[in-house]
TrEMBL record:
SUPFAM superfamilies: C-terminal domain of transcriptional repressors. This is Ferrous iron transport protein A. Residues 7-83 form the Ferrous iron transporter FeoA-like domain. It comes from Pelomonas margarita. Keywords: Iron.
Length: 84
């Protein structure tokens, strides 16, 4: 049986090639959507989790395009992805 597909970047396994589908933001921080888009998390863009913290809700190191960023779990949860 295969693993379920990740619905957000926060739940994606490290190393899996993904495509950004949508960026949204929580009601308490609507500016996150603009900030993430400014970083390059745009629909259609290639993204990959490079490394994740041991804790399931810890920080992630992600690569989008040619840039690498550290994101908090809550921020990564705003980025909807599908496998490439």
């Amino acid at each position: 049986m295969s693993e379920p597909l990740p619905s957000s970047l926060a739940h994606a396994p490290a190393g899996l090639a993904l495509t950004v589908q949508q960026v949204s933001a929580p009601a308490h921080s609507p500016e996150w959507a603009t900030w993430l888009s400014d970083l390059g998390f745009l629909p259609g863009e290639a993204v990959r989790v490079m490394r994740r913290a041991r804790l399931s809700d810890g920080n992630l190191v992600v690569r989008v395009g040619q840039s690498t960023f550290a994101l908090r779990h809550a921020e990564a949860n705003c980025i909807a992805v599908t496998p490439r």
